[in-house]
Write a structure and sequence with these properties.
single chain; alpha+beta; 21% strand; elongated
């Protein structure tokens, strides 16, 4: 599923007929450079943005939960491509998590499109949890 930013404040989806108003991105001017260095800077910002998004059921970032498998950025297309997984195939928060990812990444001035592919290989296990995630979960009384 692909979402596109029509302008700085509106996003549309091929899968939905509705437009979603997005908050204006601070400093909303796209970098004109398509150099590998500029692309790696955008990619680093995307990873940082993903760290801000928490799992809706446990207050731990999606990155620390091990749900983000890979992030790619194509400067020419202003496209962020992600591979993500979930803790279970029946995860009730799948759509919410993907919406949160799209909303956050489209706030980046260099991202106009977000593609998310759900993958089941690698299979999510507790071994994908970062140490900060393990610590936060133990603090919540969860066994990890």
């Amino acid at each position: 599923m692909t979402f596109e930013a029509l302008d700085a404040n509106v996003m549309t989806s091929e899968a939905h007929d509705a437009n979603v108003v997005m908050p204006e991105a601070p400093g909303a001017c796209a970098a004109t450079s398509k150099s590998p260095l500029a692309s790696s800077a955008v990619k680093a910002r995307l990873w940082a943005a993903l760290r801000e998004i928490e799992d809706p059921e446990i207050p731990v970032s999606l990155v620390d939960m091990g749900l983000i498998v890979s992030v790619d950025y194509r400067a020419a297309e202003r496209l962020a491509r992600l591979k993500i997984t979930y803790t279970a195939m029946g995860c009730p928060a799948m759509d919410m998590i993907q919406d949160d990812i799209r909303t956050r990444l489209l706030r980046d001035p260099d991202v106009q499109h977000v593609e998310i592919e759900v993958v089941w290989d690698p299979v999510w296990t507790h071994r994908r949890l970062s140490e900060p995630a393990r610590s936060a979960m133990r603090d919540l009384g969860l066994a990890v």
